Task: structure prediction
Amino acid sequence: MSLVLGLLSHTLNRVLWYSGLRKGCHVPRSQAMEQDKALEVYDIIRTIRDPEKPNTLEELEVVTESCVEVQEIGEDEYLVIIRFTPTVPHCSLATLIGLCLRIKLQRCLPFRHKLEIYISEGTHSTEEDINKQINDKERVAAAMENPNLREIVEQCVTEPD
Result:
C-alpha cells in the first residue's frame, strides 16, 4: 500500500510541478515544452527494432529517455539531439541503427526540427566516423538508394501490428 501511495504522490507532484500549480517548482513554459517534445521523440524511437535481434532499441537499452534532448531554436522549431549506446563497443551495425533513428524521426516527427544523432561518447570504437556518416545528408540519401539497405531499414522502423 505504501508503494502505491508513494507512486501516486510522485505522479501528483510531477503533474503539479509541470503545470506550475506547485509554488516554487514552476518549470518555465519553454522548458516544459522541450521536455514534452523529448518524450514524444523517445516514444517514436523506442519501438525501432534492432537489425539483428528480435528486440526493440528500448529493450536493448540502446535508447533511453535520457538519451533524447530537445532545444527550442526558433519559433516552433526544435533541435533534436539523440545519443544512443550500441550494445557492444565494436558493434558493426551502429551506423545502421543511426540510419534507422534518422529515417524514423524524419518520417514521424510532427514538428519542424533539426536532427543530430550521435553515439554516446566512449561507447564505440569508431564513434567519430559513424557520427559523421549518420549526420551527413548526402551519405544518408545514398544509403537509402541502396535497395537492400532500404529494405533492412524499413523492417526496423515499421511498427509491429
In short: The CA atoms of residues 52 and 106 lie 23 Å apart. The longest strand covers residues 77-84.
